[in-house]
Amino acid sequence: MTADDSFGRLDDDDYPAYTMGRAAEMLGTTQGFLRAIGEARLITPLRSAGGHRRYSRYQLRVAARARELVDNGTPH
């Protein structure tokens, strides 16, 4: 995949464009929260070639909803 191909994929909701740190920052949560919902299999982040978790926009929406439910007292 070339750089131009990668740039074009940014419109794809399933493209894993966000690192764990950036995803946590965007959601206003911790990296531990993202790991926990991954372990619970609510979302399954893809892995970079180096083994780092990468999240798509769709996964971030699911994570944001999970965070909202936790904040409102829904048991996990």
UniProtKB/TrEMBL annotation:
UniProt xrefs under Pfam families: MerR_1
Q: Which domain of life is it from?
A: Bacteria
Sequence ranges assigned to domain HTH merR-type in this UniProt record? 17-76
- Cite a single GO BP annotation: regulation of DNA-templated transcription
What would you give as a GO molecular function for this chain, any one? DNA binding
What InterPro entries does the record point to? DNA-bd_dom_put_sf, MerR-type_HTH_dom
Q: Which residues form a coiled coil?
A: none
Q: Which UniProt keywords apply?
A: DNA-binding
Q: Which Gene3D superfamilies match?
A: 1.10.1660.10
Name by which UniProt lists this protein: DNA-binding transcriptional MerR regulator
Give the organism the record lists.
Streptomyces zagrosensis
